UniProtKB/TrEMBL annotation:
Catalytic reaction annotation: 2,5-dichlorocyclohexa-2,5-dien-1,4-diol + NAD(+) = 2,5-dichlorohydroquinone + NADH + H(+)
GO MF annotation, one: oxidoreductase activity, acting on CH-OH group of donors
Name of the protein in question: SDR family oxidoreductase
SUPFAM superfamilies for the chain: NAD(P)-binding Rossmann-fold domains
Organism listed in the record: Sphingobium nicotianae
A Pfam match: adh_short_C2
Region span, Disordered: 1-30
UniProt family annotation: Belongs to the short-chain dehydrogenases/reductases (SDR) family.
Amino acid sequence: MADTVDRVREDALPGQEASLEPKPDWTPRYPGSGRLAGKVAIVTGADSGIGRAVAALFAREGADIVVAYLCEHQDAQETERIVHAEGRKSLAFAGDLGDKAVCEELVYKTMAAFGHIDILVNNAGEQHPDKQIEDISEQQLRRTFQTNIFGMFFLTQAVVPHLKAGAAIINCTSVTMYQGSKELLDYSSTKGAITAFTRSLSENLIEKAIRVNAVAPGPIWTPLNPSGGASKEKLAHFGESTPMGRPGQPNEVAPSFLFLACEDASYMSGQVLHPNGGTIVGS
C-alpha cells in the first residue's frame, strides 16, 4: 500500500500550471535592456512556476531558451509561446534529469540547435510532505535525491565542458535549507546539499571565470505545492508565516536569477540570494 501511495503522489508532480487557480504570476515587470543579448540559457523545470518566470525574463533580456521539463507538455508549450512572444528562439526538451544519459542528450541537442551554452539554471525539483521520518519510503528518499541533487550534478557535468569564461550557473536551493522543515525532511536535506554544491562548484570553476551562485526562495505560489508538494493543512495557510504574510509570486523570484546570470553580478560567486518574504536567515 505504501508504494502505491508514493506512486500516486509522484504522479501528481510536477503539476500543471494550466489548471492551477489562481494562476501564478510569471510576467516580467519591466522592459528588457539586452542584458542577456546573444546568450543561450538552459532552464530546467521551465514549464511552470519559477522556471517559467525565469525563462520569460531571460527571453525579454535577449536570451534564447532551452525549456527543459519532465512531462507537462501543455505547460512547456505555453512557456515556448512566451519566449517566442519576446522575439527569442526556444528548444523544448522533455525527460527525467535524474538520468545521466538524459542530461547528456539535453546538452547534445542544445549544442546542435544553438552551438553554445552560456547560462545553466538548475531549477527542477520535487518534494513530498511527510509528518514523520518513518513515513518517508526508501523509494521516495532515493527519488527526491535523484531529482534534486543527482540531476543537478549530472547536468552540470554535461554542460561545463561547453562553458566559456563569463558563463554562469545558478542553482535553486530553498529557505528550508536554512530554517529546516519538519514535513520536508528529504527535500530540505537535498537543498542543503545544493547549497554546499554551489559553494564548492564555485571554488572549482572560478579559475575558469565561470560564476556559480544560487537562489533560495521562500514559499512561492507554483504548481509544486498544490499538486502534492504540501500537506492540506500547510496549503491552507501557505506563505502566511513569512514577515510579509503572503506567498511570493514567480516573477518576484526571477529577477534574482537574472542578476546572477548577467554582468551585473560579475564580482559574485559562491553566493545565495534570498527572495523569501522577509525571513531572516544565515547566509
